[in-house]
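Render this sequence as a predicted structure.
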Amino acid sequence: MTELNLDIHGVPVTLSGGPAEVLDDLRRDFEYFFLPFPAEGAIHIELEPRLPERSPEGRPLFRTKDYAVFDRSGIRLIVYADEARAEYDYAAKHGRILCPDPERLHELALLAVLSRAGEALDLKGWHRIHALGFTCGERGGLLLLPSGAGKSTTALELLRATDLGLVSDDTPLIADDLRLMAFPLRLGFAPATELRDVPEKWLRSMRRLRYGIKRLVDLGFFRERVRGGVPVAWILIGERRPGAAPRIEPASRLRAAGALAVHLVVGSGIAQMSEYMLRADLVGSGPALWRGSRSRGRGPPSASCAKPASCAFL
């Protein structure tokens, strides 16, 4: 396998080069969006299992503890702390990722696809939200939880114990008419999570630089339960309250709007990749809900985002 083609809800992506096992892992990550042939106008990312000969010279545009960013004649250059490097031409929608470590190359390619396709979806009015998305009949719901609070574990329990459909365990899409659109990647769990009922063929592991090892459950295990294209009817807002008994109580529209501001507009917990997103022609690094709304002449988002019934899950 030398090339992987995807169609992420109308945003074509091509990945090429790199070790065959890296492309195979990416195919399994994005199985729901697999395309058997290349599409015109695709975002193209080349993978090279090597380090560059030298780093760019001069002062970076900005720097964090994890990377330094340079701009050279419209080309974004990213030098990571572990010496991996990425290049991206925004006009041509073409990039390269250079890294000799297959696990790190897989991680950087995965995040680059999520960032570049996510921005393209934002600009067409489809926005990622950090939540567990589910369906019941012809209606959908969102469970908003902080990172690490158990969205994937909850999704697995829903698959095991209910007939509910799964939109995404982490980043469902909300279309501009408030429909939930499927965005199912693989499920990710801590190494100690009990997965005995998952067939071995759907299991694998992934190591991320800052988050360690996760056990992954591929789409094949839950493909038949994937749903989408339903209106949002419920918003559940989860909070950690150590020592308190769990309970469910009604939440106001104002509280729902505040939660949506964090998980949707700001995009807390979403793989956006500020090294790609922060640039002069776009404002901010969160999902561009206000940009998509403004481009359609409706002005910035309002409390109408909180129209569905909401409750707090404590």
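Summary. The chain has six helices and 21 strands. The first helix runs from residue 20 to 29.
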